[in-house]
Amino acid sequence: MTQSTAYAALLLRTALGTMFVAHGLLKILVFTPAGTVAFFSSLGVPGWFAYPAMGAELLGGILLLLGVQTRLVSLALLPVLIGSIVLVHGANGWLFTNQNGGWEYSAFLIVASVVQALLGDGALSLSGVFGRNRSAAVSTVAASA
Questions:
Q1: Distances (CA, A) of 19 to 13, 15, 55, 109
Q2: pLDDT, tens digit (0-9, with 9 covering 90-100), for 4-62
Q3: Which ranges constitute the DSSP H helices of the chain?
Q4: Which of 48, 90, 91, 95 has its CA 20 to 30 A from that of 42?
Q5: 124: which DSSP letter?
Q6: How far from each other are the two terminal CA atoms of the chain, in whole angstroms?
Q7: Euclidean distance between CA atoms 12 and 124, whole angstroms
Q8: How many angstroms separate the Cα of 42 from the Cα of each of 10, 35, 134?
């Protein structure tokens, strides 16, 4: 991985992680868990699915921000994004500016997550420092110093 590719992966990882944490916190702090459960139930999905969705978004986002198992986490979050298209936004058309939001944003995030999985951790990741990618992360950080 070149230095610029490593930093591109870091930038994408940070953006995706921030987005997932923000959406997880939105469900917990603004909509509240009870409200999120009610929304999931209104979609015909068992309400308890809200809890794994909130947990996946929050924990997955944190792991992405830290750069822990980035490839696996990026792929593990795909069902949440696919579910947002199939269950929530798919019937609203393409544009996210449509009433109740279309599916373009979710589709973009799916592509971004797949790209992140292909790129891997990138620079400044905990997986790189403590895991099997240690030499790549250390050399990337050393090269930038």
A1: 10, 6, 14, 9
A2: 999 999 999 999 999 999 999 999 999 999 999 999 999 999 999 999 999 999 999 99
A3: 3-25, 32-42, 50-66, 70-76, 78-83, 104-119, 126-130, 134-144
A4: 95
A5: S
A6: 17
A7: 12
A8: 37, 10, 46
